[in-house]
Amino acid sequence: MNDVDLSGAIWRKSSRSNLGNCVEVARLSGGLIGVRDSKAPEDAALVFTPAEWDAFVAGVKDGEFDLQDDRLSFAADR
């Protein structure tokens, strides 16, 4: 997915973003989802398929990436 055109992307970030430490998300052509660092929008964006994005969001909602003891606690570790 190295050839994804991001020039027309409309980037959004959370309304709760106030310190600048945020990511921005955009829907891209072909159903892809782009994610980039709001502090460095000129840098490369990560691009996910809808299935990858859905799996990530489900993991967030399920607590798969919750911090415990200053490290990520992945489901496989539980």
Give a structural overview:
It is globular, with a radius of gyration of 14 Å. The protein has one domain (23-77). The termini are far apart. A hairpin with an 8-residue loop joins strand 2 (33-37) and strand 3. It has one helix at residues 50-61; strands at residues 23-27, 33-37, 46-48, 67-68, 71-72. The mean pLDDT is 85. The strands form two sheets. Strands 1-2-3 form a three-stranded antiparallel β-sheet. It has a two-stranded antiparallel ribbon with strand order 4-5. The longest helix is centred in the last third of the chain and has 12 residues, at 50-61. It contains one helix and five strands. By secondary structure, the protein is an alpha+beta fold. 15% of the residues lie in helices and 22% in strands.
Helix amount: 10-25%
What does the overall shape look like?
A: globular
Strand content bin: 15-25%
Contiguous uncertain segments of 5+ residues: none
The sequence of SSEs as H and E is EEEHEE
Write out the strand line-up for the largest beta sheet, numbering strands in chain order.
1-2-3
Between the first and last Cα atoms, what is the distance in angstroms? Answer: 33 Å
Mean pLDDT over all positions: 85
Using only C-alpha atoms, the radius of gyration works out to 14 Å
Largest sheet: 3 strands, antiparallel
The counted number of beta strands is 5
Structural class computed from helices and strand pairing: alpha+beta
Top keywords for this entry?
single chain; 78 residues; alpha+beta; 3-stranded antiparallel beta sheet; two-stranded antiparallel sheet; 1 helix; 15% helix; 22% strand; globular; Transcriptional regulator; DUF397
